[in-house]
Write a structure and sequence with these properties.
The longest helix is centred in the middle third of the chain and has 17 residues. The strands form four sheets. This protein has an eight-stranded parallel β-sheet. It has 17 helices and 24 strands. By secondary structure, the chain is α/β, with parallel strands linked by helices. β9, α3 and β10 form a beta-alpha-beta unit. The protein binds zinc ion (ZN). Zinc ion binds next to loops. The site of zinc ion (ZN) has 4 residues, from loops.
């Protein structure tokens, strides 16, 4: 503390740090209350540890003497947004590799691939992501032969926008040693050329590892760069904490390196990629909060099925547009129960990816089963819960189950969901309001990089069920839109609860970490269009500015006391 006061005495102008009492005043503030409502405030005091010491409403007495004062000049303040489901390292790597999200046709995608390859002659593989054949007006998957036209003989591997399929060229397929005779891994699919067994180029879900296990592994310094890129992208959108879904030991080490070097500004709560990584990272139990509440490992992420786009989602009845298929379960109910049990016995939190109605029914059944053995506050997480049989929706309201859902998926995927499911099965699709009405905690996120982490876009979709084009006019299945209050809580207090952080994150209230944003609109009053266009001006974490629009870079942390 001696160091701290010296630093402040020497440079008072640089003092908006956690090392001083900071009064933020003259703001139009709103925060979720953790009970589904909101509270208004005009100012708050941050203590020297970066926590909120007091919140001031109209007419409340302010302290006479503080180390530093921030005049909000009437700007809007909201709590830092918490992305309840994202992939931090993949978000960073997507920024470092070829991005195909904007390609509107196969030819345009191939042109971008050729250009990227020419610009990166030293890259041993051509790597990228974001393609979507539906966006190209293609009613089939692309092929290796098509990719060969753009890549020549260099191996190429391009992951589909949903992360649940990859497109390889001939060089990658032969580098990976995949032939007509290669066995199909469980929960996966190798698309074949018509009339034979030759791999066609696209590998779905469990089969992706056939190629990915043979790719050059990123170096530790590449991972450091990726984490930095992800952090910048998240802070710029007002995300101050994120649940990382599927953390590998390499990812965890990159996060530790960043935190050790005081480069980790955002808070990351991790869910290990499978029980082996869970045991490697956590050992016998979840980690405690590390680095002043910047990093923690809570539990495990398990995949029960794939995604709708690649028809990997596990359905009760066949796909409307592929009557021979009900999707690709990654495991059966017994296997899922065993893995969930393995995690729960050591008090790890369990988060299960479930997209299709059969996957959701199966994970809900496993939760019911295991709750008899594993009592107490477990907060079983169902990730996505996209397509749920209406008969199963009430089951979310039991055993402390959390529905971790992503509003942006509804806007992006609604027409594809209609094609895959047909009209009869849409009643329980992206059913945020019905699921919340069961008493389940709703935690909102983005699934970045599948969708960009843009909480204000997510809020706009959550209250309108409309895309960026304002379509459909009254919203898609508009009865499932949620209130502004519920949406804001789902991105803050609900997401905090889902990661066992509701005692410290998600609210602007006494005792909470001072994570907050200056934004240019009031989320309780803005139209959906205004909400979508909301600009984050400053992102503060632990009482320190971590990002500002004026600088547009991550602002380095001061050493915080108590490390
Ligand atoms: Zn995900």
């Amino acid at each position: 503390m001696l160091l701290a006061s010296t630093a402040i005495a020497a440079s008072p102008a640089l003092a908006p740090a956690a090392l001083a009492d900071v009064l933020v005043d003259n703001v139009e503030g709103v925060t979720g209350d953790g009970k589904g409502g909101v509270e208004r405030f005009e100012g708050f005091l941050i203590d020297r540890d970066g926590r909120i010491a007091e919140v001031y409403r109209h007419g409340d007495k302010r302290p006479k003497k503080v180390d530093y004062q921030v005049d909000g000049k009437g700007r809007h303040v909201v709590p830092g947004m918490i992305d309840a489901h994202g992939h931090v390292m993949a978000t960073g790597f997507a920024k470092m590799t070829l991005d195909l999200t904007m390609a509107k046709s196969l030819d345009e995608a191939l042109a971008r691939i050729t250009a990227w390859a020419a610009a990166h002659p030293d890259a041993p593989w051509i790597l990228g992501s974001g393609w979507n054949q539906a966006q190209w007006g293609l009613d089939r998957m692309p092929t290796a032969a098509e990719l060969d036209r753009a890549t020549g003989g260099k191996p190429a591997w391009l992951v589909r926008v949903d992360g649940h399929a990859g497109w390889a060229n001939s060089a990658a397929i032969s580098a990976a040693g995949v032939t007509a005779a290669t066995a199909v891994p469980q929960g996966g699919e190798i698309l074949r050329l018509s009339g034979g067994k030759q791999p066609a180029g696209v590998f779905v879900d469990g089969a992706m590892a056939l190629i990915e296990s043979k790719m050059p592994r990123p170096r530790p310094e590449d991972r450091d760069t990726a984490l930095g890129e992800a952090q910048l992208a998240l802070l710029a959108q007002g995300v101050t904490a994120i649940a990382d879904m599927g953390t590998s030991i390499d990812d965890w080490q990159a996060m530790r390196r960043a935190a050790d070097a005081s480069r980790l500004r955002i808070r990351i709560v991790t869910y290990a990629d499978g029980v082996d990584n869970m045991a490697l990272i956590g050992g016998p139990r979840p980690t405690p909060w590390l680095y002043d509440d910047h990093l923690k490992m809570n539990g495990v992420k398990l995949y029960l099925d794939g995604a709708l786009g690649s028809r990997g989602a596990w359905l009760k009845a066949p796909y409307a547009d592929a009557p021979e298929s009900k999707g690709l379960p990654r495991m059966n109910e017994t296997q899922l129960g065993n893995l969930m049990s393995r995690a729960a016995m050591d008090n790890f939190q369990v988060a299960v990816h479930a997209i299709g109605d059969q996957a959701n029914a199966t994970v809900l059944a496993s939760i019911e089963d295991l709750s008899a053995t594993y009592k107490g506050d477990r907060r079983w997480r169902v990730e996505h819960a996209q397509i749920v049989d209406p008969a199963d929706i009430p089951r979310f309201g039991k055993f402390g189950t959390i529905a971790s859902m992503q509003p942006q998926h509804e806007a992006s995927d609604r027409t594809m969901a209609e094609a895959r499911l047909g009209p009869a099965r849409l009643a329980g699709a992206y059913a945020w309001k019905s699921i919340a009405a069961t008493g389940a905690t709703l935690a909102f996120g983005s699934d970045t990089p599948v969708e960009p982490s843009q909480p204000f876009v997510g809020l706009a979709v959550a209250i309108s069920r409309q895309g960026a084009d304002g379509q459909p006019f009254n919203g898609w299945q508009p009865q499932e839109a949620v209130s502004r209050e519920l949406a804001l809580n789902a991105y803050t207090t609900g997401a905090a609860y889902a990661m066992f952080a509701e005692d410290r994150l998600g609210r602007i209230a006494k005792g909470y970490r001072a994570d907050f944003l200056f934004v240019d609109a009031d989320p309780m009053l803005a139209t959906p269009e205004q909400l979508r266009a909301t600009k984050v001006m400053e992102t503060w974490i632990g009482g320190q500015m971590a990002w500002s629009a004026a600088k547009d870079r991550v602002i380095p942390a001061k050493d915080t006391p108590g490390r």
